[in-house]
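Supplementary material to the annual report.
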Amino acid sequence: AQSVAQPEDQVNVAEGNPLTVKCTYSVSGNPYLFWYVQYPNRGLQFLLKYITGDNLVKGSYGFEAEFNKSQTSFHLKKPSALVSDSALYFCAVRGPNTGGFKTIFGAGTRLFVKA
Amino acid sequence: DAMVIQNPRYQVTQFGKPVTLSCSQTLNHNVMYWYQQKSSQAPKLLFHYYDKDFNNEADTPDNFQSRRPNTSFCFLDIRSPGLGDAAMYLCATSDPWGASSYEQYFGPGTRLTVT
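Predicted assembly:
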């Protein structure tokens, strides 16, 4: 079965510190991996994606993520967190067998950045 | 400039009273999706269109229907809303053949309340 796991419901970090939001996946074949962010009462907003190529991908607002095939992980990182980064973050995956254009979303991780 | 527009942003309906949510896009994307999201959980895909081809998820209740009269517009009809249908409904689009061919573009969502 195709799945995405975000093991942490919540991540707390102080402003200026590095942050990591974890994601692991289970997809047969080569996955397409994504991170989306959701602010309160808003739709999801695309942050970054891994399709192929360099394992380290850079996205919006200073976020980056590293694709690790051996660990089937795609953790989201940022060197220095901002209070405005506080939001709900979703990892997502598409693969050859996820069903056409279907994307599978993780359960989400709420990030709190304290000033 | 809004690219995926959802109207209304907030909708209140009565138990059992049909309701229609609308989505429009200025991106000219082939694929349009409807998701249900409850209480900051992962978005749950209800169905999607590839052009006029309708793809229903196996676990989407019959109470939920959709129409896509043209490329730009897509509607979600809830025939007899129950209290359990109160949620945020998200519309999204994607372009399988374009430069950003894998990620989805989300609208701001419609929050549905059932009284």
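The CA atoms of residues 39 and 87 of chain B lie 7 Å apart.
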